[in-house]
Amino acid sequence: MSIVRNILDKIKKRPLQFFLLKTVFLFLVLFVIDYSLGTVLRYFYFRQQSGELYRITYSLEKTNEDVLIFGSSRANHHYHPDVFENSMHLSCYNTGRDGEHIFYQYAILKGVLKRYTPKIVIFDFITAEFIKEHEGYERLSALLPYYHDHPEIRSIIKLRGPYEKYKLLSRTYPYNSVIFQVALGNTEYKKAKHEDINGYLPITNEWDEPIKTVTYPESYPIDSIKVSMFESVIKDCIHAGTRLCFVCSPYFFVAKNEDYSVVLAKKMAKEYNIDFFDFSTDTTFTSHADLFNDFAHLNDKGARIFTKKVIDCIGYKEEMKPTTTIQSTLSRVRRPKLQLEEKSIKSVSTRVNSAAHSLPGHRLLFPCI
Fold it and tell me: Which residues of the chain have pLDDT under 70?
């Protein structure tokens, strides 16, 4: 001890060295705290067996069902897995998550296709899906706990910002916004409050407001990265050999014109011979407020009816194989890697503008939902 004390006394007489020693010691303490707390949080995060966070883990790492549903809260509340299983005799899981759009959905899809090939993938497409906004990037925080174990989705997570890979050197950073959820997820409370049916969350309320008429705004900025990712969804599913369908599920309003994101998505899907079923203003639903929870979400009764209509459109048979057109598409499309460089973004932007000009007189988009 006397030797250590002597060394410290000598260092104290040299202010710069003493400052550096204190700094190193402080960083060492912070590292130990960060590593220890992060390890504990990680353990309890992946220990969950129910709840919203567990559904992310299951969707990304554990799904093995024949039919997978992707989308936001509209997907989560609109597609009933039991109806798929009873009608098609195929297992089904709903990976939809509130507030998440194309970035999150594509990340989950990449994790799924790395493990296995589902028979059918259904993407619920919302109006204004391609709008340029920052919220969609921020919401990628839901995937932070999976960054280190899933290299296939790292490029997507890094879209949150240029410093994301440095922030993720911290062990606690991926969990700092979900500590309370992790605590609840390790109790029975969360399971009892939000029990799901293979990912699907039923809503029982009935909408009692009169239907409204909307006009989509003439324009809003398009996010070329979102458009590029939409195309990557198509290419990845084609290469995996899974059947892909895009669906725009019902809204409770009457639209005077068509949303441009939907128009653009339909055009791209058609290029690859991919089905796009648009139920957004289907009178089966717009004539019945009792099938909705609010203007953007069906209730459980509406979801069951809607799921049956989607099944009828898909017309799946066990012996179905890819069509000749899709097989020819497979031969000309190479599996994409998400390299979101300036050059590729400019290329996508050019295609978006070209598509816009090919639709004369069409008014543009509607930033909602």
Answer: 1-19, 188-194, 316-369
pLDDT score at 220? 87
The per-type count for the chain, helices as H runs and strands as E runs, is: 17, 9
Q: How long a stretch of residues is the chain?
A: 369
- The β-bridge partners of 28 are none
| pTM confidence score | 0.84
pLDDT for res 192: 56
**Angle at CA of residue 42, ends 39 and 45, nearest 5°:** 150
Q: Please give the Cα distance from 346 to 354 (Å, whole number).
A: 12
Domain ranges of the chain: 65-134+198-319+340-357
Q: What is the pLDDT of residue 6?
A: 66
Closest-CA residue to 226 (of 330, 150, 123): 123
Nearest to 296 by CA among 123, 138, 99, 134: 99
- CA 217 centroid distance within chain: 25
Fold of 65-134+198-319+340-357: Rossmann fold (3.40.50)
The angle formed by the CA atoms of residues 8, 10 and 14, to the nearest 5 degrees, is: 105
What would the two tokens of residue 349 be? 């932007």
Note whether 181 and 48 are within 8 A (CB): no
